[in-house]
Design brief:
Distance between the termini: 34 Å
CATH class of the largest domain: Alpha Beta
Number of strands: 23
CATH architecture of the largest domain: 3-Layer(aba) Sandwich
Helix content: 25-40%
Strand content: 15-25%
CATH topology of the largest domain: Alpha-D-Glucose-1,6-Bisphosphate, Chain A, domain 3
Length: 640
């Protein structure tokens, strides 16, 4: 084949392993010849004729892998893109996995959800004049295709009816899996990724994303898929295996979130909160939960409509990004609101800005949100005599150490060494459920009080096993309300926490490395740091290096490729008061660098000027370490 030969020659100009190139050629040959891919061929031929060999290699060298957030990436042509074949093959592998995992089950069932996305080729990656099977693809269309595969494999599907005006948020999906006692689930979503991305988050019977070795087993079964069993959607709806979720199921989720309430509801106009779903699904989760708890949230009208193109959002529909809250903050100034809240497109991440004593609005980072909610909940439970005898707080290795100090102050057992990803927090809960012990933590899920990761993820109840922005929004609003009742605000509370436990400064740097060449650079960078760790970073001595891939460490032997990817994290301890972590993202084309520097608690006789100066020096030190490491990381990534 002339085009395949041209691709083979073109790949020689790309900096990548030969094995990767051969695997891409194998996938390409199938897509160029097999009838299943005929609809993609006009665009595929055009891509080859363009001669963008690095881009073509990136599309074909693998099937979209399981990352910390499942499978997600750009919608497009090739096995390393989201398209109907990629999703259907993944679902078929999931079907095979469920049958292998539950061989004696009389009837298997999954819950399928989807978000607001619609692919429009904003990046102009494809020829507009040629047929394009990935153009205009919605998350709902992906979900129907997935349901058709599940049903063809004799697996029942619970999902929303086509005429439903709402969507199934990620945390609600987790809740419904547990509520319906399904064996698994799928949410078609790319969370806060760019508009032309989509993905599939797979869930297990616990309502959590699978961890090693199960994610590896499932990944291998997906790789082995050669035939996808499917039925037409019209037939799938008639076979008796499709069950439609009704309003009762949704109200059960809202009620669970409302039950997390810790203080008396606000009186009329006692408290004002502005809320935006950033065009995502949170208008039917966080907004409703706030209303159910007695708040009167003021919505950002132009961002309220579910819209997968996110037309009225600045920069990114991600509450981790301060610019995404600009319209909400503008409205808050007009309304003189006490608090601004935002949720990401699938309503699992929470964002916020708090009004300070000067009437300005301060953006809250994920670490700050976690500490504020954790302190508020632990304090309220203690005051009301409702704190479990052995409370448990769970977090990850890259989340602020301040959260650990807060938890231990209130007598909590703290798990703080986990890899990135909420599935690892859920795994601790699963182990407690089964054995009442996890490492040196003793208890049950009933002892669980709080879980969080720095990426704006919070979990408040073990009845869900993924981060939930709705209940987090409620408790952050209640924390702000409680402060207002004492003539204070959340910024004051944050200052109080820092004075009591020590000032913690955190900085996140994203090293963008797109495509197959970017993956090679990230690998080169990580291996360089492993083989030759720096003696100092920004002039601060490295006193300890921890490699999560070390099989002699707390995580034990590596259980396959997915576990190896999840544990691709290096931790650097810098003296007694600073630390740094670096890891490639599992779902985005970048490496993340986390830097934290902390000081000691404020002594009673310390002048406020001296405290402010000490905090400023800690911030400057944090930035200097981050800047020095970023420069060294990029240098090592480029070095051959």
């Amino acid at each position: 084949m002339e085009r395949l030969t041209a691709v083979q020659r073109g790949f020689q100009s790309v900096d990548a392993d030969e094995a990767i190139k051969q695997r891409a050629l194998s996938y390409l040959e199938r897509w160029l010849t097999h009838a299943d891919f005929a609809a993609y061929r006009p665009q595929l031929n055009w891509l080859i004729d363009q001669g963008n060999w690095a881009g073509l290699l990136d599309r074909f060298y693998q099937v979209l892998p399981f990352g910390t957030g499942g499978r997600r990436g750009p919608v497009g042509v090739g096995p390393n893109r989201m398209n109907m074949w990629t999703l259907a093959a993944s679902v078929q592998g999931h079907c095979d996995y469920l049958k292998q995992r539950f061989p004696d089950a009389d009837r298997l069932a999954v819950v399928v959800g989807y978000d607001v996305r619609r692919s429009e080729d904003i990046g102009r990656n494809y020829a507009p004049s040629l047929p394009n099977p990935v153009l205009h693809l919605t998350s709902r269309a992906f979900a129907e295709r997935a349901a058709s595969v599940y049903i063809a494999n004799a697996i029942d599907v619970h999902m929303l009816p086509a005429e439903s005006t709402r969507y199934l948020a990620t945390p609600e999906l987790s809740f419904q899996i547990r509520r319906l006692r399904a064996q698994g689930g799928l949410n078609v979503s790319a969370s806060h990724n760019p508009p032309d991305d989509n993905g599939g988050k797979f869930y297990d019977e616990n309502g959590a994303q699978p961890v090693a070795p199960d994610d590896q087993i499932m990944s291998e079964l997906v790789e082995q898929v050669t035939h996808i069993r499917s039925v037409l959607w019209i037939d799938a709806q008639r076979g008796g295996r499709l069950h439609l979720l009704d309003e009762t199921s949704h109200r059960a989720y809202v009620e669970l979130c409302r039950k997390q309430s810790l203080v008396a509801a606000p009186r009329f106009d006692e408290f004002k909160v502005v809320y935006t779903p950033l065009h995502g699904v949170g208008g039917r989760t966080a907004f409703e939960v706030l209303e159910a708890a007695g708040f009167r949230p003021v919505a950002v009208a132009e961002q309220l409509e579910p819209n997968g193109l996110f037309p009225n959002v600045t920069r990114s529909p991600n509450p981790e990004v301060p610019e995404s809250l600009d319209r909400a903050i503008a409205l808050a100034r007009v309304e003189k609101a006490d608090l601004v809240l935002a949720t990401d497109p699938d309503a699992d991440r929470i964002g916020a800005a708090a009004r300070d004593s000067h009437g300005d609005y301060r953006f809250l980072t994920g670490n700050e949100i976690a500490c504020l909610i954790a302190h508020f909940k632990l304090d309220q439970l203690t005051r009301n005599g409702r704190l479990p005898a052995s409370p448990i707080v769970i977090t990850t290795a890259v989340t602020t150490g301040l959260l650990t100090r807060i938890g231990r102050h209130f007598g909590a057992q703290v798990v703080a060494h986990l890899p990135v990803g909420f599935k690892h927090i859920a795994e601790v809960l699963r182990r407690l459920e089964l054995d009442q012990v996890c490492d040196d933590i003793i208890g049950t899920p009933q002892d669980f009080v709080f879980g969080a990761e720095e990426a704006h993820g919070v979990l408040l109840t073990a009845e869900m096993r993924d981060k939930d922005a709705a209940s987090a929004a409620l408790l952050l609003a209640e924390a702000s309300l409680d402060q207002k009742r004492n003539n204070r605000n959340l910024v004051d509370l944050l200052e109080q926490i820092h004075r009591q436990f020590g000032f913690y400064a955190n900085e996140l740097r994203n090293l963008i490395m797109p495509g197959i060449t970017g993956r090679a650079k990230m690998q080169r960078m990580m291996e360089a740091f492993r083989s030759n760790p720096p003696a100092d970073i920004g002039g601060v001595m490295v006193t300890q290096v921890t490699d999560m891939r070390d099989e002699a460490g707390p995580f034990g032997p590596i259980q396959g490729d997915t576990d190896r990817m999840s544990r691709n994290v290096l931790l650097f301890q810098l003296g007694d008061s600073a630390r740094l972590a670096v890891r490639p993202s599992g779902t985005e084309p970048k490496a993340k660098v986390y830097v934290e520097v902390h000081g000691e608690p404020l002594r009673s006789n310390t002048p406020s000027e001296r405290w402010s100066a000490a905090c400023r020096l800690i911030r400057e030190r944090t930035s200097a370490i981050a800047e020095a490491f970023e420069s060294e990381a990029l240098r090592r990534a480029e070095k051959h």
